[in-house]
Amino acid sequence: MSMPRVNSRWSPLRVLAYAAAGFVSLLCLYPYWWMLVSAFRSTEAILSAPLRPWPEAPSLQVLSEVASIGGTPLWRYVLNSVVITSLATAIGTVVTALGAYALVRRPDVLLLRLLRLGFLTTIMYPYMLLVIPVYIVMYKLGLLGSYAGIVLFLSLSPIQFFLFEQFFRTVPRSVIEAATIDGASEFDVLVHVVLPMARPVVATAAIVSFLLGWAQWLPVLVVSRSPDTYTLPVALLNLNGELGVNFQGIMALAVITTLPVTLFFLLAQRRVMSGMTAGAVKG
Amino acid sequence: MNPLVRRVAAGLQRSRGQRVGVFWLFVLPFAALTAVFGVWPILLSLQVSMTASATALQPSAQWVGWANYATVLADPLFVASLGRTLVYTALAVVCTIVLALAYALLLHSPLMGRGLTLFKIAIFLPVVTPDVAGYVVWRWLFDQSFGAVNMALGAVGLPPFGGLASTGTVLWAVLIAELWHHVGFYVVIFLANLALCDRGVREAAEIDGANAWQTFWHVTLPELRPALLVNSVYALIQYLKTFTVVAVMTKGGPNDSTNFVSYYAYQLFEQGRYGEATAMATILFAVVIALALGLMALQRTKGPA
Asked: Does position B122 have pLDDT exceeding 80, yes or no?
């Protein structure tokens, strides 16, 4: 808003602005703190003093509470999350980069334009309802309950497609033509000219889709046939739905689910924020 | 090689200009994934919505035409659910845009300097936090007996908040959790747009004697049109599909007051009522597309482009 320019370092208005932003930030971050503290407190202790800002006696005792969820050991969920998300990210990045590249280079080919339309329609379709027919497709292909089914479904991500499409459109035609005149094949152009330029966008796309993929739960739940292929968010949902609330365990599992992506985000925050919102507003 | 395959391949290669061939190779995996996990399921969904649920998964599914759509549209629960979804979406979109815009303007104001990155990280962190984890925590924060929300309200002398337990407050409770998860995304988009705006124009308006409100209304807001358009379309699509927060926090209750269309359809799917579930999916899809296109057309006609 058009505030008058302030020259003094800490005018009352400025203090007010910082107080407001600080308050909003605290509201955003408080649930994390409460989750972390609660993971180290017994359910009875939380009942008697929910707002206590730190645990009575911090211990890693809680890890035994969640060592096994629904008869499946915790390490299995962790491993599933890491493996499924990594594979889906790797496959998705390669496949989407190549696909978007072809679509940007040959918009003159009707079939490729139709493919783009099909992809855009897919991402407009309500995701949780796409999962229903995908279940039927998996059933028909015999992929129900398999890692392959989960990984392949998770590997398509709209945000990756938009990032790559936007980037490839900025590659000057003259650069590609120059290489072609020198006798390079399209394959050479891709590997030796375009991909080296695309390194930053590949990194951004991979990081963003890892973060979004880690949070996925419904496709994993629907394609799975047993907890053996569940990822951390699905295990958390399961634990949260159980009768007889294991409150401390739920909070501990929420921490385990959240912590890796939180650290990842903090390390790459600039890239994640610009990547996830890229292309939304063009200058 | 089969002569037919060879002829098709040669034809594809000839299509407008040379060397399309290798591009087919590049696009093939992407095309396969889009077809198998996008286009096929959507077509299948349309097909299943016109077959009897009991036979939907069998090779000889029984064709029933529009019967499932008729059943769904005559179901008072579905009609109520659709109305509820639209009301919630309208409320959520307005709250999201207003809050995100206000906060982006605050962060963008010349009053802000040092620490801006920290404020941006704080508002954006919930966006990349797995939604299940975030909503599980909010569910317990709202708990009536040991939730921190009511404790904090009590501590400052305010009446308790009904949270998820009361039909009167549950929509607000769900909305608060969703705003926490989503609003940072919209804030960062507004900030990106604000960074492109010309500070000079605003300063000129101030020198010409425009007050803060006039400057905002006649200078800043028109400059933010791209972000407003993108944000309202994104928010509209996103809230129409509201699902995870319901699955984690309320299971549609209490008394169906958060039973939105996507959750209702999913419940039918779990009961094996595939025909009706996919009919609902098609209806929701149509609503999403119609409202998104309508909103885009509306914003395009409003004011000089």
From this structure: yes
ipTM entry: 0.90
Window B:235-294, CB contacts with A under 8 Å: 237, 240-241, 243-244, 247-248, 262, 265-266, 269, 274, 277-278, 280-281, 284-285, 288-289, 292
Residues 49-68 (B) with a CB less than 8 A from some CB of A:
56-57
How far is A37 from chain B, CA to nearest CA, in Å? 12
In DSSP terms, B113 is beta-bridged to: B115
> Average pLDDT, whole number, for chain B?
87
What angle, 0 to 180 degrees and rounded to 10, lies between the N-to-C axes of helices A195-215 and A158-170?
Answer: 160
Whether cis (ω within 30° of 0) applies to the bond prior to B130 is no
pTM: 0.89
Instruction: Give the C-alpha separation, A230 to A69, whole Å.
Output: 11
Single-letter amino acid code for the residue at B109: S
Is residue B172 exposed (0-12), middle (13-18) or buried (19+ Cβ within 10 Å)?
Answer: middle
Neighbours of B234 (CB within 10 A): 19
Structural domain boundaries in chain A: 12-59, 70-277
**Residues 82-121, chain B, touching A (beta carbon < 8 A):** 103, 105-107, 109-112, 115, 117-121
Where helices occur in chain B by DSSP H, the ranges are 3-14, 21-34, 40-48, 67-73, 76-108, 116-128, 131-141, 148-155, 170-196, 199-207, 212-215, 221-223, 225-240, 244-249, 261-270, 274-301
Cα-only R_g, chain A: 24
- Confirm if B201 and B219 have CB atoms less than 8 A apart: yes
Q: How far is CA A278 from the centre of its chain?
A: 15
Q: What are the structural domains of chain B?
A: 75-301 (1.10.3720.10)
| Residues of chain B above pLDDT 90, percent | 48
In 10 A of CB B106, how many CB atoms?
20
What pLDDT is attached to residue A279? 64
8 A C-beta contact, residue A31 and residue B138: yes
Cα(B272)–Cα(A187) distance, integer angstroms: 48
B217: helix, strand or coil = helix
CB contact under 8 A, A28 and B133: no
- Contact state of A21 with B112 under an 8 Å Cβ cutoff: yes
For chain B, the residue count is 305
Q: Which two tokens stand for residue A136?
A: 């039927």
Which CATH architecture best describes the domain A70-277? Answer: Orthogonal Bundle (1.10)
Phi-psi region of A244 (alpha: psi -120 to 50; beta: other; left: phi over 0): left
Give the number of other Cβ atoms within 10 Å of residue B12's Cβ: 14
Positions in chain A whose pLDDT score sits under 50: 1-4, 6, 283
Rounded CA gap, A234 and A242, in Å? 13
The gap between the terminal CA atoms of chain B, to the nearest Å, is 56
Closest residue of chain B to A8, computed from CA coordinates: B111
Question: pLDDT for A236-266, tens place per residue?
Answer: 998 888 766 778 888 999 999 999 999 999 9
Residues found in chain A:
283
Residues B50-60: pLDDT tens digits?
988 877 777 77
Nearest to B42 among A24, A121, A155 (CB): A121
